[in-house]
């Protein structure tokens, strides 16, 4: 399949061939769902923690004598029955990450790219470069291209001026090609790939 190549000034710059193995698949929601769940679970901090009875600072002396008070038998003030005592089965720091095979992760990225291509939400741009980091100038160019909520993927390195101009625009994310991921692709309305990013992706999936 072919796609039109455009410039930041919304001018045509020829056509480019898109690999059917990467951009021509029938998107599967189950694979995309598994990948998004994998990403969101992996980025959770998992740092919640509470003190159990062994970590609470309190006296170890028996609270009162065993018999003759008419009250329940208690030994420690650190149990969960008392205010300031430890919590039973509370959360502890842990990893929330789940396992997902590497082949499924690669396939999910292909399906996400194919989903954007089928929805006519994929834009191939010649270069992501600006002479000066001017946010106003970049916003005007994006409006010409009809870009609002957009993920922009450049080559191995993103030009500093372009990244600085884009970082103040809402709903606009700019990533190098090695940072491309399913979650960011799906949560933006459009996906913009530079020619350098397109070449890198096709080389990656060969």
Automatic annotation (TrEMBL):
Q: Which domain of life is it from?
A: Bacteria
Key word rRNA-binding present: yes
Q: Which residues form a coiled coil?
A: none
Tell me which UniProt keywords the record has, alphabetically. Answer: Ribonucleoprotein, Ribosomal protein, RNA-binding, rRNA-binding
Gene Ontology cellular component terms for the protein in this record: ribonucleoprotein complex; ribosome
Q: What are its GO biological-process terms?
A: translation
What Pfam families does the annotation carry?
Ribosomal_L4
A GO molecular function assigned to this protein is: rRNA binding
What exactly does this protein do? Answer: Forms part of the polypeptide exit tunnel.
Q: Which HAMAP family does this chain map to?
A: Ribosomal_uL4_B
Q: Relate the assembly described in the record.
A: Part of the 50S ribosomal subunit.
State the PANTHER family in the record.
Answer: 50S RIBOSOMAL PROTEIN L4, LARGE RIBOSOMAL SUBUNIT PROTEIN UL4M
Family, similarity comment: Belongs to the universal ribosomal protein uL4 family.
| Name assigned to this protein | Large ribosomal subunit protein uL4
Provide the species name: Methyloligella halotolerans
Taxonomic path: Bacteria, Pseudomonadati, Pseudomonadota, Alphaproteobacteria, Hyphomicrobiales
